[in-house]
Structures are given as C-alpha cells and as structure tokens.
Design brief:
Layout: E1 8-13, H1 19-33, E2 37-42, H2 43-47, H3 50-66, H4 68-79, H5 90-98, H6 100-110, E3 114-117, H7 120-129, E4 138-142, E5 160-162, H8 169-175, E6 182-183, H9 198-203, E7 212-217, H10 227-237, E8 244-249, H11 254-265, E9 273-277, H12 283-289, E10 292-295, H13 299-308, E11 312-315, H14 321-332, E12 336-339, H15 342-354, H16 356-369, H17 373-382, H18 398-418
Parallel strand pairs: 1-2, 1-3, 3-4, 4-5, 5-6, 7-8, 7-10, 8-9, 10-11, 11-12
Length: 419
C-alpha cells in the first residue's frame, strides 16, 4: 500500500516587529502537531535587499518613535486611496516584487500544497505572480489587526483571507475580495494563550494569590519598556481599597528591569508589591495570573489577552494608527478600556478593582470575540487538496513580465470602474 505523503505548507512571514513572526510560529507549531510538513521563510530576509529589510523592520520603529503624527497622517491618507489602483501602489508593490523571483523558485522547489502568509507583502507578490504564472498551491493570508491597514487591496489574488472578525466583511468586499475568499478564524496566536486557573498560575512565579494583579507590558520599540507608564500605574493603584501587585514585563530592556528592582528595594512603590520580570517566554503564565493588563494595542498581543480572558486597559494616545484603530474597535465591543491621562488611568483601574459587573461584561465581550484560532485555521488548511505541479515556469525577465501584466490588470480595473 502506497504511503500518503504529508501535506506541505510553506509559511511566509515578515519581520516587522514580532507579531507576524509570532503568528508564523503558532501556525507552524499547530500544523506540525497535526501532521503537516512545514517550512517557514522570512520573505524579505530571504529574497529582498538589506535596505528593504531594515526599512520594513527598524524604519517602522523609528517612524513611530520620532515622527508618529506624520506616520499616522500618511497611514490615513494611504487608506483613502481607491482600491482599483492596487497594481500601481509603488511602495508596496516595489517591496513585494523584490522577492518575487526567489519566492517562485522556492514554490517550485518545495512544491507546497498550501502557502500561508502572515503579512501582505508575500501575499501581494503571490497576487502579482498569479497574473503571469500558475501557482498550484492554495494561498492564505491573515489580517493581524482589527481593521484593514493600507495596501491590503494589493493581495486579492489569494484563495483565502482570514479575518479577525466578521465586522470587517463589508470593508473586505469594498477592497475587492469575494465572499468566498473570506474566513473568520480570528487572529491565530499560540494555543497556550487560553483561560487557566488564576491562583495556580500565581503560585509558579511566586505571586501573591490574593492581591489584585495588574500586568504591565509594552515591550520595546517606541515604548522602550514602558517605564513611564509603569510609574503611572503605580501611582494609579497606590491608594487602592484592596491589596495590589504589579507584574512588569520589561522584555529585553534590562536597564529598566534593574531600575525597577532597585527602586522596589528602596521602598519607592509604597504598599504596592512589584515583580519586575526580564525577557520571558512565559507571557501566557503571567497573563493567566493577572486580573487586568495595561498594554499597547498590537493585534497579536490584544488577541492573546482576549483568548486568556484578561481585561485590557490601553492608552488612547501616542499609538501608531493601526493600534489606535484596534483600541477603538475593542473599546466599542466592550473588550477594552481606554485612557488619555493619568486621572483616567486611575479611574479605569479602580473600576476594574471594585466593579465585578464591569469585569464580567468585559470577559463576556472577549469570549464573543475569540475565534477558532490556530486549530480551526490549521484544519481548514489541511483540508485543501494536494497541489499538482507541472514544469517550472520561465524565470527570464520575470519581474519585467510581471510588471507588464500588472499594468494590463490595472487598465482593466480602471476601465471596469468607469463602466
């Protein structure tokens, strides 16, 4: 009896912060667990220039750290551009096409049955390549925020777009996707982010089992560990009516970790017990141990909180536009509270400390948002048929030929819009 081979899945990620890579790891882990052969490739690091890799990763961090108003203004303007111009998005298309030939060669060498993208750049390249050459694999991409970012109209050539919520359906249709392309498995985060026994979670890191526990997590980037916001949280709970402990996750910011530990030893935080944690791969443990979290609003980290069942308190100011949009959406759904100053932060935390009904409503809202996640999406991927590959395509002048096909497609879309 002939042995049936494993389904092959090529996962394409992009290093632009850590969220896309975290999603890739979560999907790879689940797909391998259920029997797939998985290969993960950083699309830009593998096939684009070092300048492009730097621009997408470090350049973004610098932009939001030092020119946030300009970044947000540009973001909003790009979102207003007509989707029919998708094939002349010079910035997005230029970056996406840098890796197109390398990607196509990888596809015909690995011969995946499914290609899963965590970012729109590889999904855009697949859309463009499919104008010219066959790609037999089924192609997926997941939106990792609770609103569409600019350039998502450029990757309508995938087979499936996985959305975090059905509330984005009409916007997806406006951008040019078809209903049959849309999935609603939610943002796929690691399965370990799930509800757990809070008291048991507190025992392992030695936390007080009875104190109200506030976790503070901002990571690196423009927040530089969130030390200033940490001090605001300390002041906000200083006179709380119940015992409070703060768990501060500093990421790789060792200077802030040492500073907080030193100030704690000097008694600068009064009655508030502080646990200053350096880099950890047990974020899910500290989330499960906490009653609330003060954090920023990346789509991945927000979804981790939602899946654990952890009420979110987030700054409404000083956020990159995509995170500001996430914050507004989750506030409107009742899954998060926002604050604009220290007085409002104190009010939000006091409400969570004292109002069980509010906490109950927020947890119910979060449960309503939790999708099927990695397991549901992995099951959908593995249900796809085996891909049949023919001979390798002609790689000569590939980018030039793809750009010609894109111009023809652009003319067709604009003509269709006029008619």
């Amino acid at each position: 009896m002939q042995e049936v081979r494993k389904k092959r899945v090529l996962i394409l990620t992009v290093t632009a912060g850590n969220g896309h890579n975290a999603c890739a790891r979560a999907m790879a882990e689940e797909l391998e667990r259920v029997g797939a052969e998985v290969k993960v490739v950083d699309y830009l690091k593998a096939w684009a220039s070092r300048r492009t890799v730097w621009t997408v990763d470090k350049g973004y961090g610098l932009a939001v750290a030092h020119a946030l108003p300009l970044y947000n203004l540009s973001y909003r303007r790009l979102k207003r551009r007509p989707p029919e111009e998708r094939f002349q998005r010079k910035f997005a298309q230029k970056i996406a096409l840098e890796g197109a030939e390398g990607l196509l060669r990888e596809v015909y060498a690995f011969r995946p049955d499914v290609i899963y993208c965590t970012h729109f750049y590889p999904a855009t390249a697949l859309t463009d390549l499919r104008l010219l050459v066959p790609i037999p694999a089924k192609c997926y991409v997941t939106l990792l925020d609770y609103s569409f970012n600019p350039f998502w109209e450029c990757c309508i050539g995938v087979d499936h777009l996985n959305l975090p919520t059905s509330d984005l359906t009409e916007e997806a249709l406006r951008l040019g996707y078809r209903r049959g392309q849309l999935l609603y498995s939610g943002i796929p985060v690691a399965a370990k982010f799930a509800p757990a026994d809070r008291r048991a979670a507190r025992r392992e890191p030695g936390l007080d089992g009875n104190a109200f526990t506030v976790m503070v997590m901002f990571g690196g980037g423009q927040w530089s560990g969130g030390y200033t916001i940490f001090r605001q949280v300390v002041r906000a709970v200083q006179d709380a009516p119940v015992p409070v402990q703060i768990v501060m996750l500093n990421g790789r910011n060792e200077a802030d970790r040492r500073r907080i530990a030193r100030e704690s030893a000097q008694g600068k935080f009064g009655s508030v017990r502080v646990h200053s944690v350096g880099f950890t791969d047990r974020v899910e443990l500290y989330m499960a141990a906490s009653d609330a979290i003060v954090t920023k609003m990346g789509g991945i980290s927000a979804t981790e909180c939602i899946n654990v069942g952890l009420p979110i308190v987030a700054a409404a100011k000083l956020l990159p536009q995509q995170e500001a949009d996430n914050a507004v959406y989750l506030r409107e759904k009742g899954a998060a509270l926002l604050y604009t100053n220290e007085r409002e932060l104190r009010e939000r935390l006091t409400a969570l400390l004292t109002d069980e009904a509010l906490r109950g409503r927020m947890l119910a809202a979060q449960r309503s948002l939790a999708g099927g996640g990695v397991r549901e999406l992995a099951a959908h991927i593995l249900a796809q048929p085996f891909a049949g590959y023919g001979e390798q395509p002609d790689f000569s002048r590939l980018r030039e030929r793809v750009e010609t096909a894109m111009k023809q497609a652009l003319r067709g879309e604009l003509a269709a819009k006029r008619n």
